[in-house]
Design brief:
The protein has seven helices and ten strands. It is an alpha/beta fold. A hairpin with a 4-residue loop joins β4 and β5. The chain is extended and about 80 Å long.
Length: about 325
């Protein structure tokens, strides 16, 4: 017997001609968010007015040729006023800032917008339709809507959406759309890892402050992390050999590739190279401090007041006044 449950299928038709609120037909399969954009959004949320429930802004980034991959690299806030009856967005500011950002970063394009609230309402549909419109929006690609929950005392929840046009008549398309969730991931560069780890380590402190580590402290922490990872891998391999843990082909291949790249040297050579590197670092630090001291001493000597500008002026004798001699001749 066939299932009696009913379903509603929503599909986006391919528009034959560009229309003002037509949505793109190619949806991104994955959205990558860079940490720089996230920190800009959080900073914008912290600086909002107390009577504002959320703030919005424009997302910039790059998109693959087929539109299946989107990277959010940058963003800027856009002023808006929102009430129960209407919403006002400063579109002129958005256009001006977008033009300046595109001049500074020619490779980036408009990819969507963000809001610091997980709520999706009619106003969200209006703003989404503007960013996905033809001409000033992301058409023919879909606009990405990024939501971040910034409630105090709760974990930050991030979600990404694209939209599909729905409506019983063309008049309702402008303020109606279906938000479709899409997967996302947060990516950071290797150079940003130490800074992000330092920031995240302050979450367990009551005052949310953490002192900046010195170079020696950072080196010690890095060595401890490496030792911890080696112990964790060694424990996993021992459990697999004993049969206490299931074996993973992917992990085995990854470990084999990683170990094949490691140079085959003994412990004495590693210690010797490490000590040599430490000596080089100390020598560079000593030279840098010496140069800094020399520059500071030169600056002090240049600004020191030694007295008169001409040192000979203090020892030059005063001129002798001229005397007049009269000679009288008598015949």
């Amino acid at each position: 017997m066939a299932d009696q449950a009913s379903y509603m299928h929503l599909a986006r038709p391919l528009p034959t001609v560009p229309v003002p609120h037509a949505h793109a037909t190619t949806a991104p399969l994955n959205v990558t968010i860079h940490t720089q954009a996230l920190f800009s959004i959080l900073d914008h949320s912290l600086r909002r007015n107390m009577d504002q429930e959320r703030v919005i802004g424009t997302l910039l980034g790059v998109r693959s040729d087929d539109g299946t991959e989107v990277e959010i690299r940058n963003c800027f806030g856009v002023g808006h006023n929102e009430s129960q009856e209407q919403v006002e967005v400063d579109m002129e500011y958005h256009k001006t800032m977008l033009g300046l950002h595109l001049k500074a970063n020619p490779r980036e394009v408009l990819v969507g917008w963000y809001a610091t609230s997980p709520e999706l309402n009619t106003f969200s549909a209006l703003i989404q339709n503007f960013y996905a419109s033809n001409g000033e929006g992301t058409f023919p690609h879909p606009a990405v809507h990024l939501t971040i929950s910034t409630k105090p005392g709760e974990d930050i929840a991030i979600k990404t959406y694209i939209s599909s046009a729905v409506g019983v008549n063309p008049d309702r398309i402008a303020d109606s759309c279906l938000f479709v969730p899409v997967p996302h991931e947060i990516r950071y560069a290797e150079s940003e890892k130490s800074g992000l780890e330092l920031i995240s380590s302050a979450k367990n402190n009551e005052d949310r402050n953490i002192p900046i580590m010195t170079d020696i402290g950072a080196l010690e922490k890095a060595i401890e992390d490496v030792i911890g990872m080696l112990d964790r891998v060694s424990d996993y391999v021992s459990k697999v050999i004993k049969g206490d843990a299931p074996a993973s082909v992917a992990i085995g291949k990854f470990l084999m590739n990683t170990l094949s790249l490691a140079p085959k040297v003994n412990a004495a050579d590693v210690e010797r190279m490490f000590n040599s590197h430490i000596q080089d670092v100390l020598m560079v630090s000593y030279l840098a401090n010496t140069i800094r001291t020399q520059i500071d001493l030169s600056g002090r000597l240049a600004t020191y007041n030694f007295g008169p500008k001409d040192p000979l002026a203090a020892v030059t004798p005063a001129p002798v006044p001229a005397t007049t001699t009269t000679t009288t001749t008598t015949k």
